[in-house]
Amino acid sequence: MILSIDSISACYGTKQVLHNLSLQAESGQIVVVVGRNGCSKTTLLKSVIGDVVLCQGTITLHTDDGHSLRVDQMSRRIRAHYVAMVEQQLPTAEMRVGEYVALGRTPYQKILGLQWSETDIKKVEEVLQLMNICQLKDRQMQELSGGEMQLCAIARMLVQDTPIVLLDEPMSSLDIVNQMEIASKIKHLKAMGKIVLCVVHDLNIAFSIADIVAIMKKGNLIACDTPHSEVLKQALNEAMDTEMNFFDVGSGMRSIIVPRKWNEIF
Description:
The protein is of the alpha/beta class. Helix content is about 30%, strand content about 30%. The protein is built from 9 helices and 12 strands. It has helices at about 40-50, 75-80, 95-100, 120-130, 145-160, 175-190, 205-210, 230-240, 260-265; strands spanning about 1-10, 15-25, 30-35, 55-60, 70, 85, 165-170, 195-200, 210-215, 220-225, 245-250, 255-260. The strands form 3 sheets. The chain has a 6-stranded mixed sheet with strand order 6-7-8-3-9-10, with helices on both faces. Strands 2-1-4-5 form a 4-stranded antiparallel sheet, covered by helices on one side. The chain has a two-stranded antiparallel sheet with strand order 11-12. Strand 11 (about 245-250) and strand 12 form a beta hairpin. The longest helix is centred in the last third of the chain and has 16 residues, at about 175-190. The protein is globular and about 55 Å long.
């Protein structure tokens, strides 16, 4: 499958916040979106899931059997069969973990009330096991740590069983151990063949997990390439409004990214 975002623009009221943006992502590919605060990274994700109305452009899912589905024209209910999202705000629902994760099956329920089928229950159990959070099933959501909540949010997204998954800053406010745990789960989404579109602020994590890095500035996509692209490195300087240094580590397949001004400040 291919998710094709073609020349989209989006507005909040009369203010245009996305400008003629085009991007593609394929099954089994992680596309990480980076840029400074306020550059409309989250708006891009919300455009795909339908929380922001496009004022121009199209969002299309090209399936392996040759069909093209206009994601931007789907009803919210139908779109929920194709796109799921973990948002920035951590879940604070007053319910047990198992109940919260099961809500990911809501798009498959009848309009009048929730009636979990054997398929729904089996899916929830499989995902709890996959995410290694079976021990949390009967815990109250408000009792969980930030890392545990993120794992539960990803589990709910997986239970929704969509080919496209969106994650908006899934590692924010987490310690380094939990960041690594979430990063490993994102890599697993890739192994499952999902189309993964993810916003990450930590540049070192972003460039480590991404197949493609998309760099945004003021609502524009200014570069999109593989993590080791020299064009991408130059675009990062422009997007961050400061020079970034890349230091190769290990075999040279990974880099540590540090602002040049780091030494001047610290």
